[in-house]
From TrEMBL, chain A:
Keywords on record: Amino-acid transport, Cell inner membrane, Cell membrane, Membrane, Transmembrane, Transmembrane helix, Transport
Gene Ontology terms for molecular function: L-isoleucine transmembrane transporter activity; L-leucine transmembrane transporter activity; L-phenylalanine transmembrane transporter activity; L-valine transmembrane transporter activity
Signal peptide as annotated in the record: none
Lineage summary: Bacteria, Bacillati, Actinomycetota, Actinomycetes, Propionibacteriales
Annotated protein name in UniProt: Branched-chain amino acid ABC transporter permease
From TrEMBL, chain B:
Record keywords: Cell membrane, Membrane, Transmembrane, Transmembrane helix
Signal peptide coordinates: none
A GO cellular component annotation in the UniProt record: plasma membrane
Cellular localization per UniProt: Cell membrane
Classification via Pfam families: BPD_transp_2
Membrane topology term: Multi-pass membrane protein
Organism: Propioniciclava sinopodophylli
Residue intervals passing through the bilayer: 12-32, 38-56, 63-82, 88-111, 118-137, 157-175, 205-228, 240-267, 279-298
Name of the protein: Branched-chain amino acid ABC transporter permease
UniProt GO molecular function: branched-chain amino acid transmembrane transporter activity
Length: 294, 324
C-alpha cells in the first residue's frame, strides 16, 4: 500500500511535467492541426537555459524559471514564423516533415554548441533538497515544487484561455479559422500567441526536469516529447483538460510499470497504450467523434 | 525504334547490365577500395529502403515514421538464421523470412491503424518501431543491447545488384498495376477514391505490407554485409534518414528516390570529417525542401533513359501503327 502511494506520488510529479508539455502539443494541434515535433526540443532548450542561468549566472530557481520561459516563448514564435507560417497552405505531410526538420535542427545545433554529454544542475539551494515523510511515503521538496509550479501555470493558462480576449480568439480560431478571420480576428497573431504559450510551458517543464533529475542532454526532449504527445492523444488531442488527464495518466502508468515490473519496459508500455488508444478510441478519452464531410 | 522490345532493351536492360559489369570489373581490378565498397553497399540498401517507403508514403500517401522497425525485423531474422544455418540457402531463407515477418507485422499493425487519419498513422508507426526496438533490446535470443555478431557475410556486389534492381522493378510494376493505381487514387483523395469503388483500407494495407516486406529485405541486406547489428541502429533517426531520401527525391517518384540515395551518399561522404554538421545540414535540407520545393527534386515524375532524344517514344508513329 505504501509502495503504491509512493509510486503515485512519483507519478504525480512526472505526470505534471508530461502535462505541461502535452498542453503545448494539444493547443497547437487544436489551432492548426499540426503535430509540432519540435515541441520536445523547445523543452530541451528550456532546460539548457535554466542550467545556464543557475550554474553560470548563479541566479535563483524562480528567476531561472522565468528567464527560461521567456527564451522559449521567443523561440516558439520564431519557429512558427520562420518554418511553419510559409506552409500554411501546404499539405499536412509537408508541415509535419518540416516540424521533424526543426526538431533535428534544434537538437543538433544544441549538440554542436554544448557537446553531446550530459550535464548536471549541480548543487541546488538547501531548501530544495528537503524531504518529508508522510505516513511512510517520502515526498521530496522538488516534487512539491514541480507539482506546485505546474498547477499554478495550468491555472494561469486556464485563466488566459477562458477569461481574456486573446484566449477567446484562440478558441475561435481553433473552431473555425475562416469564420474567425471574418470576425476581425488576426489568425496569424493568434497562432503565434498559441505557440508562445505552449513554448513557455515547455520551457518551464524543462527547468523543472533539470532540477528533478539533475541531468540534461541535447536529446533529452525526444522521448518526453513523444510521451507528452501520447498523453495529449490519450486525453483527446486539441482539448486542454484532455492533456492534463493524459499527462497524469501516462506519468502514473510509467512509474507503476517501473515500480512493479521493470524500468526497461516503460517506454514500450507507453507506446503500447498509444496504439491501443488509436485502435479503440482514436479521438481520445474526452474527444467526440467528428465525421469527415466531403 | 518502333519495336517496344528494342526500346525496352536499350533503355533498361543494356544500361543495367553495363552498370553491373563495369562495377564488377572495377571491384575485381581493385580500383574500388574498401571505403567505396561500403558506400556502394549503403547506397543499394538505402535505395531499397527508400523505394519501399516511397510506396507507402509517396504513392499511397500514408505517412510512416517506422520504417526502421521493419528493417530491424529483417536484419535480426537474417542474422539469426544465417548464424544457425551458415550457407547460401540459409542466407536466402533468412532474407525471405525477414521480409515475410516484417510484412506480417506491417499487416497486423496496418489493419487497425490505417483507418486513422494521416498524422495519427505517423505516430502509430513511430510507436510500433520503438516497441520493436525496445523488445529487441530486452529479448534473450537477440542478445539485448549488445546485438548480434558476427553475422556471416553473403552480400557481394552481385547480390546487391540483383536485390536492389529486383526490388525497384517489383515495386515499379506494382505501382503500374491496378492495385497501384488504386493506391495513387487513395493518396489523391481518399473519399473520392472510396466513392468510385476503391477499397481504400485494402489498398492501404496492401501497400503497407509490401513496403514492410522490402523494408525487411533491406534490413537483411544490411545485416549480411555489416557483420554487426544492434537495436540502437534501428531507432527513430534511421527512419528519419530513410524519410529524408524519399522526400528529397520526391514523394511518388521511384527514380527520384534512387537519385536521392546517390546524392545523400555523396553528401555524407563529403561531410565525413564533420559528423556534427551532417545532422544539422540534414535538418536544414528537410526544412528548405519543404518550404521551397515541397514536391522534392523530381516531384512525382519519373526520370528514365526514355526521355533522351532519339529514344523518346514517337507518339505520332505509335498512334499511326495502332490505327493501322
Amino acid at each position: 500500500m505504501e509502495q503504491l502511494a509512493q509510486q503515485l506520488v512519483n507519478g504525480l510529479a512526472l505526470g505534471s511535467i508530461y502535462a505541461l508539455i502535452a498542453l503545448g502539443y494539444t493547443m497547437v494541434y487544436g489551432i492548426i492541426q499540426l503535430i509540432n515535433f519540435a515541441h520536445g526540443d523547445v523543452y530541451m532548450v528550456g532546460a539548457y537555459v535554466g542550467y545556464f542561468c543557475m550554474v553560470h549566472l548563479n541566479l535563483g530557481f524562480v528567476e531561472s524559471l522565468v528567464i527560461a520561459m521567456a527564451v522559449c516563448t521567443v523561440l516558439g514564435v520564431v519557429i512558427e514564423r520562420v518554418a511553419y507560417k510559409p506552409l500554411r497552405k501546404s499539405t499536412r505531410i509537408a508541415v509535419l516533415i518540416t516540424a521533424i526538420g526543426v526538431s533535428l535542427l534544434l537538437e543538433y545545433t544544441m549538440m554542436f554548441f554544448v557537446g553531446a554529454d550530459t550535464r548536471t544542475y549541480g548543487v541546488l539551494p538547501p531548501f530544495m533538497e528537503q524531504s518529508f515523510n508522510v505516513g511512510g511515503v517520502l515526498i521530496t521538496m522538488k516534487q512539491i515544487i514541480i507539482i506546485g509550479v505546474s498547477v499554478l501555470l495550468m491555472v494561469v493558462l486556464q485563466y488566459i484561455v477562458r477569461r481574456t480576449k486573446v484566449g477567446k480568439a484562440m478558441r475561435a480560431v481553433s473552431q473555425d479559422a475562416d469564420a474567425a478571420r471574418l470576425m476581425g480576428i488576426s489568425v496569424d497573431n493568434t497562432i503565434s500567441f498559441t505557440f508562445a504559450l505552449g513554448s513557455a510551458l515547455a520551457g518551464a517543464a524543462g527547468v523543472l526536469v533539470g532540477v528533478y533529475y539533475n541531468a540534461i542532454n541535447p536529446l533529452m526532449g525526444v522521448l518526453p516529447g513523444l510521451k507528452a504527445f501520447i498523453a495529449a492523444v490519450f486525453g483527446g488531442i486539441g482539448l486542454i483538460p484532455g492533456a492534463l488527464l493524459g499527462g497524469y495518466f501516462i506519468g502514473a502508468a510509467e512509474t507503476l510499470v517501473s515500480g512493479y515490473w521493470s524500468s526497461l519496459y516503460t517506454d514500450a508500455v507507453v507506446f503500447g497504450i498509444l496504439i491501443l488508444v488509436l485502435i479503440f478510441k482514436p479521438t481520445g478519452l474526452l474527444g467526440s467523434n467528428v465525421r469527415e464531410k466531403v | 525504334m518502333k519495336n517496344p522490345l528494342v526500346r525496352q532493351a536499350l533503355t533498361l536492360w543494356v544500361p543495367l547490365v553495363l552498370t553491373y559489369v563495369i562495377v564488377l570489373l572495377l571491384v575485381q581490378a581493385g580500383v574500388v577500395d574498401a571505403y567505396m565498397q561500403v558506400t556502394i553497399a549503403t547506397i543499394c540498401i538505402n535505395i531499397v529502403l527508400a523505394v519501399s517507403l516511397n510506396l507507402i508514403t509517396g504513392f499511397t500517401g500514408q505517412f510512416s515514421l517506422g520504417h526502421a522497425g521493419f528493417m530491424a525485423i529483417g536484419a535480426y531474422a537474417t542474422a539469426l538464421v544465417t548464424m544457425r544455418f551458415d550457407s547460401i540457402v540459409g542466407f536466402i531463407g533468412g532474407l525471405l523470412l525477414g521480409g515475410i515477418i516484417a510484412a506480417l507485422v506491417g499487416f497486423l499493425i496496418g489493419l487497425p491503424t490505417l483507418r486513422l487519419r494521416g498524422d495519427y498513422i505517423a505516430i502509430a508507426t513511430l510507436g510500433m518501431a520503438e516497441i520493436i526496438r525496445i523488445l529487441l533490446q530486452n529479448f534473450e535470443f537477440t542478445n539485448g543491447a549488445a546485438g548480434l555478431s558476427p553475422v556471416p557475410q553473403y552480400m557481394d556486389w552481385t547480390w546487391f545488384f540483383v536485390l536492389t534492381v529486383g526490388s525497384v522493378m517489383l515495386i515499379r510494376n506494382f505501382v503500374r498495376s491496378r492495385q497501384g493505381r488504386d493506391a495513387i487514387a487513395v493518396r489523391e483523395d481518399e473519399i473520392a477514391a472510396e466513392s468510385i469503388g476503391v477499397n481504400t483500407t485494402r489498398s492501404k494495407v496492401l501497400a503497407f505490407t509490401i513496403g514492410a516486406f522490402f523494408g525487411g529485405v533491406a534490413g537483411g541486406m544490411y545485416a549480411s554485409y555489416f557483420y554487426v547489428i544492434k537495436p540502437e541502429q534501428f531507432g527513430f533517426l534511421k527512419s528519419i534518414d530513410i524519410l529524408v531520401i524519399v522526400v528529397l527525391g520526391g514523394l511518388g517518384s521511384l527514380s527520384g528516390s534512387v537519385i536521392a540515395a546517390f546524392l545523400l551518399a555523396i553528401i555524407s561522404t563529403l561531410l565525413q570529417p564533420f559528423p556534427g554538421v551532417r545532422m544539422i545540414l540534414y535538418a536544414l535540407l528537410l526544412i528548405v525542401i519543404m518550404i521551397f520545393r515541397p514536391q522534392g527534386l523530381l516531384g512525382n515524375r519519373e526520370l528514365s533513359l526514355r526521355l533522351l532524344p532519339g529514344l523518346r517514344k514517337r507518339r505520332r508513329d505509335d498512334a499511326g501503327t495502332e490505327a493501322a
